[in-house]
Design a protein that fits this description.
Order of helices and strands: HHHHHHHHHHHEEHEEHHH
Largest sheet: 2 strands, antiparallel
Number of helices: 15
Radius of gyration: 49 Å
Helix content: 55-70%
Strand content: 5-15%
Shape: elongated
Number of strands: 4
Length: 327
Amino acid sequence: MSGAPYWIVKQRKSELLGLAEKVGLENYDHLLKVDLESALAEHIRANESRLSQNPSLDAFFKSIASMASPVKREINNALALTTRDDAKKPRGRRITKAREEIEAPSSDSDIQSPTSTALSMLPSLPIPASPSQLADRIESQTNSLRTQASSLVTDSGIPAYLSSIRANLSSPTSIQLLALAIEAWGLRFHVLPMRYLTTIPSSFTLGMGEIPVQLPDLFALLTAGFWGPVGTWILTSVVLPLMGAWFFNFTMTRGRARGYKYDPLSFNVAKGLVAWMVYEKGVRLGWVLSERYVGTVEDGVPGGYHGMITGAGIGGLMSVYEAVLRK
C-alpha cells in the first residue's frame, strides 16, 4: 500500500493526473499510480497552508482528519466545545470557573480509566508480530537455557568424573574388588562389634528423638577373635585365588605380557574351588584353618558359602565376556 489517504487511492489515474496539474506537482508523467498517490499526498501535505483553500481538496483534508486517532478527535471535540461554551458565557463566569478548576484537587482530566492506562502501556511491551515469531522466541530462550545448563554441568567436572568412574568399574578387576568389599563389610560386624558411646538428646524443634551413638570396638583389633577370622578370609578369598591366577595365567603368551598379571578367570575359578573345599567339604589344611574361625567367616560373609560361590561365578562370567570382547 502507498500510505496515501483513501480519497486519493480511490481516484483513477486520469483524475490523479489532473489533480497533479492543479496542485502544481512536477515530474509526474512517468510515475505509476501507486507512486503518483504517494507523491500527491506528500505534496499536498507539504503545501497545506496554500492548498487548504482549494475547494477540490476538501475531501482530501477530511480523509486526513478521519485518519487521526480516536483519542485525538475526542480531545479536539472537547476543546471545540469548551471554546464555544467559553464564548457564550460572561467573562466573570469564566474567571470563577477557572478558579474552581484550580482549587479542585482532582478533576476529570486527572482521572485515567484502566482502559486508557493499559492502552498507554501497550507500545512499551515487546509483543511478537505473529505466532511464528512467538514460537521462534520461545525456542531461542529454551536453547539459551539449555546451553547455559550444559555449560554449568560441564564446568563443574561432573561428566568427566562420572566417565572416569564408569571406565574404572568396567573391568573384571572392579567386579572382583566389589565382591571382596561386600564380603569384608559383612565380616566386619562379626569381628569388630559396635560399642555404645553416648546418646544425642531429643530435640522437639527438629522433631527427632534420642539417637544412640555407637562406634566400632577398636580394642578388638588386639585379640585373636579379630585376626583369626580375618586371616582365614584373606587366605581363602584373596591369597590362594591370587596364587592360582598367577600360576595359571592364560593371558600370557610365550613369556610376554598380553593382558593381566593375574588372570581374572583363573582367580575366580580358584576362589570358587577353595570356598567349596573349605566351607562345604570341611578341608582345614592341617593346623592352618580353625573350625571356629571358618564358622565365623561363613556366618559373617553375606550369603555364607553360597555368597562366595555367587561372587566367584559373577566375576568369572565377566572375565569371559571381557576376553571375548578383546578378540
